[in-house]
Amino acid sequence: MSERKTYLDKGSKLSLRCQAKLLEVDRSCLYYHPVGESELNLTLMELIDKLFLDDPTLGVKGMRDELRDLGYEYNDKRIRRLMRKMALMPIYSKQNLSRLGLAKYIHPYLLRHLKITRPNQVWAIDITYIPMRHGFMYLTAIIDVYSRFVVGWQLSNTLDKENQTSVLHEAIRKHGVPEIINSDQGSQYTCEHWVSTVKSYGIQISMDGKGRAIDNAFIERFWGTIKRKHIYLNPAEDGLELYQGIANFILKYNHRYHQGIKRQKPIELYTKAA
């Protein structure tokens, strides 16, 4: 379905609604509206995103110092609010989730020393901030760890937990049920909604250790790739343009050679062994 979205044309005589119906595309994706912020905050958020991509250990104080070196002098409160809005989780020990009543939803990390030998053995899911020309949105993606094939993705303008289960349902509908799914300990995943949904499929839940982004390294690398090679170079004007750009990029990503899988293509490695 993602590939079909690239054929939508805002300049066509057919309405977007009709085009979506003909292509069997969910037309709700055509009307995404970027989240608004002041121009200054949008500038700060894009800088924060780039700095964090290069150094995921940066917390609020470290980010404040980096921004100061770039000529942006702002207090911790503002930087903390923006980082939270961007769903950025630095690599350091975070607050004790048991105090927040979330400890019962935390699951152990299952991938350490696990030999991953086949498609759909392990999927990894994450959400990231995506800057646009006049706002921002969030991108959720699921990657098959064995093949690096992107099995599902979705844009949204909120951090709602329902968006995570929505992309999971669609990925399973298209590609089947994985044995394990790995995520970080973000609030979208340490909640009853996510845990109960995943368990209803019989999937094992794995979560990164606190402050260990390297535990979900495969999807972190994907964020770096799509942002440096597409998002930063092509800031989208609206949700449809962003969606089409990401759809094109992921289509190419799944069909290009990857060094991490011995110069094979994710689509071929995934389908050959599936």
Please give the structural blueprint.
Blueprint: H1 2-5, H2 16-22, H3 39-54, H4 60-69, H5 76-85, E1 122-132, E2 135-144, E3 150-156, H6 161-175, E4 180-183, H7 192-200, E5 204-207, H8 217-231, H9 239-255, H10 266-273
Structural features:
alpha/beta, five-stranded mixed sheet, 3 domains, 274 residues, disordered N terminus, Nucleotidyltransferase, domain 5, single chain
Short description:
The chain has helices spanning 2-5, 16-22, 39-54, 60-69, 76-85, 161-175, 192-200, 217-231, 239-255, 266-273, and strands at 122-132, 135-144, 150-156, 180-183, 204-207. The chain has 274 residues and is an alpha/beta fold. The model is unreliable at 1-8, 20-25 and 97-101 (pLDDT under 50).
Structure in words:
- The protein is α/β, with parallel strands linked by helices.
- The protein has three domains: about 1-30, no CATH class; about 40-85; about 100-274, Nucleotidyltransferase, domain 5, CATH 3.30.420.10.
- Helix content is about 40%, strand content about 15%.
- The protein has ten helices and five strands; from the N terminus they run H-H-H-H-H-E-E-E-H-E-H-E-H-H-H.
- Strands 3-2-1-4-5 form a five-stranded mixed β-sheet, with helices on both faces.
- Strand 4, helix 7 (about 190-200) and strand 5 form a beta-alpha-beta unit.
